[in-house]
Design brief:
By secondary structure, the chain is mostly helical. The protein has one domain (20-205, 219-414): Up-down Bundle (Growth Hormone, Chain: A), CATH 1.20.1250. It is 81% helix and 0% strand. The protein is built from 15 helices and no strands. The protein has helices at residues 20-51, 54-80, 84-105, 108-113, 116-148, 154-204, 220-233, 235-250, 257-264, 269-292, 299-319, 323-351, 357-386, 388-409, 411-414. Helix 2 packs parallel to helix 5. It is globular and about 55 Å long. 56% of the residues are buried.
Amino acid sequence: MESDTGQVQQYDTFAAIKITEFKYLLLARFTFTMGLRMMTALVTWWIFKLTNDPLAIGLVDLAEFIPAFCLALYAGHVIDISEKKWMLQRGMLFYLLCALLLLALSTPYAEAHLPAHQVTVCIYGLVFGTGITRAFTGPVFNVMLASIVPKAALQNATTWNQGSYLSASVIGHATGGFLIYYIGISGTLITICSFIAIALMFISLLSKKPALNLRGEKRTWESVKEGLSFVFKTKELLGAISLDLFAVLFGGAVAMVPAYITKILHADARAFGWLNGASDLGAILMVIWLTRFPPRKQQGRKLLYAVAGFGVCIIIFGLSKIFLLSYFALLVSGMLDGFSVVIRGTITQLKTPDNMRGRVISVNSMFINSSNELGGFESGVTAKLMGLVTSVVFGGCMTLGVVVTTWFKAPSLRKMEY
């Protein structure tokens, strides 16, 4: 990195980690995400075993997408006018309640007295509840980050933050599969509850993070429109969000892993654990690399190349009938996805004013995080209509089409540097 005087400054890999509250936030996000990702793996496996229908997996994602998407804009307004620590704690407590109710559904008593279709409906209802919670808790982590870390260390903090999230994702996804195999659904849910409780403990160590906006300063709808307007006026941010939205929407092959394991690769829950975590493992490997060697130039162009490579990997995964090839296709797709996540996260943090972070990050969450669930639903529907393999290959081809369209329609993103 060069200073204004032309002297070379050393990039401090651990600049953000030296801040005590940031470490607590990182540990809280890691343990909470571990619990969430294990629950995602468990619910998709559980639903598929109850129904033996790929569309049922897609409906799980839809059940979480609907509330997360519909409440995102309002959640951003609430986050900006609220004290952040208590808001995050309440969301975690509600998620813990949902996990405990799922645990009750997994007991031998429930299994003996409830038919499979009733258990399935109850699971969908609880997943809907976690979607409500996620609309509020998800963005708060990123909003709190900016209130803890000085602007000079934001790029470094964003990389560490994404690394924490992605490493928890890979461990949570993979561990979820292994735990299902070794200790069953009930044992896995007890583990999930334990991780959420640990996350609550780390959050309790943070100081209060009061609102920068005064309650009543703006009407709710005016506040929401202000956040939307900022995103649509910031072309680089809008372009990055749109690219990621459609790439994830069409490239949601990971949602079909339970069906692939059973119908294509003919493997068990241990293989499910490995394959389920491959994408996230690739992402965390990339984030570790970017922590030490952040991209210096042509970040926008490199972002487009990464998403195109992601689409190619999804096509390879769709066509593969060999476990190792499927695993490495998802591993590399995760590496490329991790690169795009860090670029987009850095743009969001650097270009958003402090008093609008809740609304802007919620808009980002609305389109990006929810696209994972909507992408899973799209994968379930297309798998039902086209067949499993054809639907995944179709999604990869559509991702490539999105990149080509963005290349020509969004030149400001292609030329973007920071």
